[in-house]
Amino acid sequence: xxxxxxxxxxNLFWFLALPGCLLAQVKFSAASDISxxxxxxxxxxxxxxxxxxxxxxxxxxxxxxYAWFTYHxxxxxKSTLIATAKSAATQPQTISxxxxxxxxxxxxxxxxxxxxxxxxxxxxxxxxxxxGGFGLIIGSASNTFxxxxxxxxxxxxxxxxxxxxxxxxLTLDIIGGVEFPVAFEMFVYSEVRLHIPTTNYxxxxxxxxxxxxxxxxxxxxxxxxxGVDP
Length: 230
Hints:
- By secondary structure, the protein is mainly beta.
- 9% of the residues lie in helices and 60% in strands.
- It has an 8-stranded antiparallel β-barrel.
């Protein structure tokens, strides 16, 4: 499955990069928004603000290719963990402690946007659209334990490590949005985004690896349309 998503991302990238494809299209938009992102994965919940930058290529009135980059503030969360003695001779047998953690996320996504009501340059009424694509989360996580735990004597819950490290996740991105014209070739839009992780490579700096991070966000921004006559 991982190979499939990587190939899909590469194929879409080369398609967008082909000069012939870009020159054949009529319109191009640039958008930027502010987002509120929440992690729902259960053990690492946090809510942060961020920003997206989104170039868009309008293939026809209803269909648009997009590529966006999003970055967010560090998400902070706290966990109470247990360290269990490896030997029956070790005392105490269990130690309770706290891990103060942070997660930093950067996201890339490529996909297709489809207008269900209206079209990309309609300036009289609202437009309603949906979008879907493949994304890549480039993240880092850090943990600071409230007390020193001797890992030669104790096993730490979930094998969590004190310190910081990087991780990556491929995602399936699902988007729904509405936009309103506010000026000549300028639109205000609001979107709901869901980022479903499709990989769960083990990482010792994450308290939960399976289906994590499981992200959803609300975005509010402005799209500016640029015309290129064929």
